[in-house]
Automatic annotation (TrEMBL):
InterPro entries: FAD-dep_OxRdtase (IPR006076), FAD/NAD-bd_sf (IPR036188)
Protein name: Glycine/D-amino acid oxidase
Top-rank taxon, per record: Bacteria
Keyword Lyase in annotation: no
GO cellular component assignments: cytoplasm
Keywords associated with the record: Membrane, Oxidoreductase, Transmembrane, Transmembrane helix
Single GO MF annotation: oxidoreductase activity
Residues in FAD dependent oxidoreductase domain copies: 11-362
Transmembrane segments: 7-27
């Protein structure tokens, strides 16, 4: 089906996270027969163990900011069209700095957002305190991005599963894409062989071995804390409180190697708080630790002491799929005809998932797309012949690198 107009093709999607399920939904809507294979169950990966910030504010400058703007617009459209009714909610993001180092990061980030035509409002500390009752004065600067949003990945996937009649095969771990004459003919799993005209590899971390990305993808664990609720079904604050340390970690991962904690306090619509989190490089486990949980809570209390009244009801962790150059991997596999790859979304896959799912489905069926995703192509890691050495793209600018190290 690669770059052709073939209708009614039989597509195998590997991975029932938000990206795989969104693509499956749009492929099925376009008239194709779709089988989704998951090694475990739908939402068993990062999609079921994450927050749901649909945020442009948090993205690093460049292609990620551009994609996030388009992804946020797509959520707005899907909500208005009814496909994701009541599953996406708009809200502002508040970004704060606690010291001079963080203030430099915040100022640079605000300038990059403004350059990308994103509305950014500067708030005084008093204005911030008025909008966020209960916040402390331990901040030196604050920026707000009014147009962000929130969606829970597991709710999106559950909804798409209910709506579409794609076949989902649980506990079918893909072992290999079977290739004949340079063309994919199906997928070998531990539950047997599934033949197909095209294969979408959207298996998060599991994608690495299937398409030769083992040297370029790694796990990055995140620990999260959940509180109880004060009122039912009403967020306690207008929007999330995002530290500049979080922005620094997103702009340049080196910033969080020394201190993996980057604070975000997210008011959920249930009335609960979701407080994150960590970025623990190379860690692929779902445990939470007293060390990080206590430090996240200490930082959260320092900024928002009003939370002290809340009960902590649960902690959990999820594992992000990170890439060596900090960008997702999306596009046709350069060496195997009819294989499309969509993985490596690190902490941005809930935001980007529906848009990338739709884009993958369109490209696989030979349609043109407006989105420029050339810089995400797997060909930056995998050549026609096999796997190349990593060639990371330039990270954030030097000023930010210097300002954020150790932030
Ligand atoms: C703590 C935390 C907080 C986050 N917060 C946010 C946020 O606020 N906003 C945001 O946009 N993003 C956030 N993310 C990131 C987001 O959750 C991920 O980027 C997104 O869920 C990735 O979706 P996916 O479909 O690519 O992969 P996954 O959800 O990981 O799905 C991959 C699926 O593939 C299956 N699989 C794996 N290997 C195989 C195989 N060999 N064969 C068959 N199936 C296989 C797995 O079982 C899984 O179901 C967060 C992540 C974490 C961990």
């Amino acid at each position: 089906m690669k770059r052709s107009e073939k209708r009614g093709a039989n597509v195998i999607v590997i991975g029932a996270g938000i990206v795989g399920m969104a693509a499956a939904y749009f492929l099925r809507s376009a008239g194709h027969s779709v089988t989704v294979l998951d090694a475990d169950t739908p939402m068993a990966g990062a999609t079921g163990a994450s927050d749901g910030a649909v945020s442009v504010a948090s993205k690093k400058p460049g292609v990620m900011m551009v994609l996030a703007k388009a992804a946020r617009d797509f959520y707005v459209q899907l909500e208005a069209d009814g496909l994701l009714r009541d599953l996406f909610h708009r809200r502002p993001t508040f970004m704060f700095a606690r010291n001079e180092l963080e203030a430099n990061v915040l100022a640079a980030h605000g300038a990059d957002l403004a350059k990308a035509d994103v509305q950014v409002d500067e708030l005084t500390v008093s204005e911030f305190a008025r909008r966020i009752p209960g916040v402390s004065r331990n901040v030196v600067s604050v920026l707000a991005v009014p147009g962000d949003g929130h969606a829970l990945g597991y709710q999106i996937v559950a909804h798409l599963l209910k709506l579409s009649d794609v076949t989902v095969v649980r506990h079918a771990r893909a072992k290999r894409v079977r290739v004949e004459n340079g063309k994919a003919v199906g997928v070998e799993t531990d539950s047997g062989f599934f033949c197909g005209d095209a294969v979408l590899v959207a298996a998060g971390l599991g994608s690495a071995d299937l398409v030769g990305l083992g040297n370029f993808i790694c796990p990055r664990k995140g620990q999260i804390i959940i509180t109880d609720r004060e009122k039912d079904n009403e967020p306690a604050l207008e929007g999330p409180l995002m530290s500049a340390a979080y922005l620094a970690a997103k702009r340049n991962f080196e910033a969080s190697r020394k201190n993996p904690i980057s604070l975000v306090i997210d008011p959920l619509r249930t009335g609960q708080f979701l407080i994150g989190g960590t970025r623990e490089e190379g860690v692929d486990s779902r445990t939470t630790t007293a060390h990080y949980v206590s430090e996240i809570l200490r930082q959260a209390m320092d900024i928002y002491p009003a939370m002290g009244r809340r009960r902590v009801i649960r902690t959990f962790s999820g594992v992000r799929t990170a890439t060596v150059d900090g960008l997702p991997v999306v596009g046709f596999h350069p060496a195997i005809t009819n294989v499309f790859v969509a993985t490596g979304f690190e902490g941005d896959g809930i935001c980007l998932g529906p848009l990338i799912g739709k884009t993958s489905a369109s490209l696989m069926t030979g349609k043109q797309v407006d989105l420029d995703i050339a810089s995400l192509s797997p060909s930056r890691f995998v050549s026609r012949e096999g796997t190349d050495e990593p060639q990371p793209t330039a990270a954030a600018d030097e000023t930010i690198n210097a300002a954020t190290t150790g932030a």
